[in-house]
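3.2 Worked example (two chains)
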Amino acid sequence: MRKRIIAAALAAMLALTAGCGKKEQITPTTESGIEAVKTEEELRDENELAEIENSEKITPDRVAALSRNAASMWKIAGGKIAAGVEEASGVPKNAVFGTENEPDIEAVLNFGADLVLIDTVSENYQDMISLLDMTEGAPPYLVVDIHRFDDYADSMLEMAKYTKDAAAYTTGVIDVRRKNAEVIASGQEALQVLIQTMPLPEGSLLPEADDESVMETPDQAKTDSAPDSVESHGAESGSDDPTASGAAESGTDDSTETQSTESALDSTAESYPADVEKVADKRESITVLLMRVDAEGCTIQGSHDYVSNMFADFGLINVNPGYEEVRVTLPKEEDDSSVKSDEKDDSRAADGEEAESSAESVEADSQTADSEVTESSAESGAAADSQTADSEVTESSAESGAAADSKTEDSQAADSKPAESKEAVGEEAGNSTDAKKEERPANEIEFETVLGRNPDYIFVIYEGKEREAEKTYKAICESREFWGDMTAVRNRHVYTLPQSTFAYPPNDQWDLAYEYLYQMMFVM
């Protein structure tokens, strides 16, 4: 009996121990918690796939893509394009309706599209939206607006709700997003190492327009300093002479203007960012400038550009942090036909003047000849009266001398006029040059201001025909006097990004684009 009790007790203990062991496996006592808990990224991916599978949207058969990028995204989402604009690839030849900037919306509606894809890269995309909203029975539309990868993912999710292709969404978005995160994390770590090795920026090449230390104008300097200076000078001299007082005021104005000029020169030595004292002996980050160039001009991109935001993901700072871009275009050449027309008009005018001059000369010669004949007749008729003839000759000589003196005076006056005219022309030319300098376009000044922030790296994307874009880049950027003094140029940190990857959003190749920037910034 005693043995049975002991055996039962041992069995109970074993059962209890076994139960405790199972409990520890289900809920391990670790700081990370339950192993079955998924990360936020995994939960987000599952929720997105569930939205696609549970979507009640009807899959369209006739999709019209009004941009190249929208057509590319729709194909990645598993759909097919039935109509679109010239830039969209894969559109049937008989269903091409205009271009990205000038699409034929009426033709799209007549085509019978059951879904329209609109892109904000189109200049008149808002007009397209308004027309579709006001047209009764118009098909639904999706607006693509890509400024970063998250925008791309959101638009792709909406498209996948139509196509119901969860596998395509996984390949085109979820897998790419995971690779992006890995490259971005590596870039952020590499940036910290680069910050420690790169020297501080050497300063702004140009004073910023909104800088408090910008030079005062001479008029401001006179207004602020003249009264005190005059009062002080009067007290020292003890004179009430207004002439002396005016002279003192003039002298003080010159010194004040000189001081303000010196302070302005000192302000140009400030480095970017302006509060360098807070940076001390170490950097906060690396600055970059992104520029898109076409055959007509150069555009410095702001924070709206998806490539700018890729740099921001790594932790780099854009020297043009605002949303707005800054564009400068090549000066337009004059029309040759108008120039030739002006030359013809000038030539005709010159010919007319010469003809008039010839006519006047002939008339003058004719009058002179008539006068000589008359005088000759008079002289022959009065040959007997020699004294009278001698008197006339003497008077004629006197008149000839007076005429010669008169011509000499006219000649001297004529010589003096061109000199005065040349001086006037010189002054006008100087004033014209100064006026041109003062009347520079605001975008030109802003363009140089951004360049003057002296970025560590400059990245250029050629759009359209690359050779023509490269010529424009050299004409607008490399021709500037201070271009060679910029930190990025001196350190050979000016790079051209491949058009095939960065001219348009990289879509399902975002991970490759991030990898390219990572290699260029932190490895090469």
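3.2.1 Second chain
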Amino acid sequence: MELLNDRIFWFLLVLARVSAFLAALPIFGVRGLPARVRAGLALVATVFFASVLPPTPVRAAGWLDGSLLLVRETLTGLALGLAVAVVFTAVQQASEVIRILMGLAEAETIDPFSGEETQPLGLLLEMTFTVLFLVGGGHLLFLDLVMRSYDVFPMGRPPEPAVLAQALIESGSLMLVFALKLAAPLLAAFLLLMVALGVLARVLPEMNILLASLPLRIGLGFFVAAAFMPTLGTFTSDFGEWLRDLLAR
């Protein structure tokens, strides 16, 4: 009976880390996904990890000790999920730059990933990146990350806050770098457009540059966005490489 209780408690620890990790991800933790489906995915993933992980003798001295272990595993999975989610939002940040440059601040729709209002073109970029990521086996990288996390943060041992903090800091800086790389072609194109409009305003001062520039900005934005759409594949590869290197050091 005591052995059965230890196995059940060990399974609950695995469930705590896996479910917290999946809940923080921008794909499996979206609001549009029913709660039953998310719970089912977490349970299936937990059964998978429980069958491949070597059983670790983790025992709790009491209810308080067991609760602290569950909270610790939950925080570890949540920190890993947040680190991945921060980098995942690089496409969203790049789309915000596109929205501002194109002057489409009022053209918004509901994003099914976050449940918030977003710009339609940005939503298209996010969905395209998500499809490319999943088709390229990104979900397997998520599972591999959770598997490697048990080598870095063994179950039952206190996690190293410095390692988790370093992962979150690196993910934040990498998100900004990826967002600027994605938005760089559009920034360069709009810089040239603003220079041309500035010269035109000096040559034809009676012309309403604001009204004349709006269709040019929208047309240029769509053209450049279509031109750098293939670079999402490169970003997907870079994101996958970062996932493989995460927790590797």
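3.3 Remarks
DSSP finds nine helices and two strands in the chain.
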